[in-house]
């Protein structure tokens, strides 16, 4: 819920719609979640269609943007049944309404296809306003559950406001790549980022010496991992920092300190917890979907290589490691990552006092972006902020 309303400053939600939807959701009921968010998404979608038909460009743009976020939110808890047709159809509605929005923005937004291992990765290239010479670019990817359209709210809008070009994309395990191409996550994210950087430097609008990368959530592991091998990056942002993403390690707390358990015991214990704990249920369902695992033990095996052990000291570019004080997913991980890095590094911690203590600082994105872009401006030696526009 906090994640959805966090996008309000960038046009992704309206507070009244959010509150009334929240009031109708039954606690712990994933079907109720889907039904109520889909309901408000359809209402915003219809409003957008009416405005477009009447020639009301701004009204249509605003309503399509909210509809996109609400459809994304509606689809979020459907991953426990990957063959559920609503998962694909609802996600497509989120993508399609965002693409309607993109056509109505003042900023130039291009749908791009990035060559990758015999196929392509879907992305969006956002061109900064009034760019007459090559500008710095921020490349953004998400993590465990992001979509390319969500990344507009998650950083692209803020980058445009500050005069940066922005390239967002979906990699293996994410968005269209997992839903349509069925390509799962991979731990060696440099194999993904290098083709993306190749694409970025091919654009004449981009200053090849000022390319920054930000990874969000699980992307807080993926981005530093890529930076350890892709040295054309001038800066890296881990939001939030993740040193190790292993289901085996994360699941050990469920075994009450035991180390002699079998995977059968582990799976039985987690299955019981999933019956009563929505976050655990979602984390396992989504992991099995995005890593294409058929069991919890297979998911543990597939996430075993997801660590910065042995590679963190190969990151050369300045890196911003972010921490949310009360992150319920990655407590302690940002500090582990920062300690392992030997490159120039900065540690950014938002706290309960800031209102940015939750995972990825949801609830305080304006503050978070203020701090991040202040660091990025200094790191890339950008002395003045060009006039920018949001839409």
Automatic annotation (TrEMBL):
GO terms, molecular function: hydrolase activity
Pfam families in alphabetical order: Abhydrolase_6 (PF12697)
Keyword Hydrolase annotated: yes
Domain of life of the organism encoding this protein: Bacteria
InterPro entries cross-referenced by the UniProt entry: AB_hydrolase_1, AB_hydrolase_fold, FrsA_esterase
Occurrences of domain AB hydrolase-1 (ranges): 137-337
Keywords: Hydrolase
Family statement drawn from the similarity comment of this UniProt entry: Belongs to the AB hydrolase superfamily. FUS2 hydrolase family.
Name of the molecule in the record: Alpha/beta fold hydrolase
Organism: Paenibacillus apii
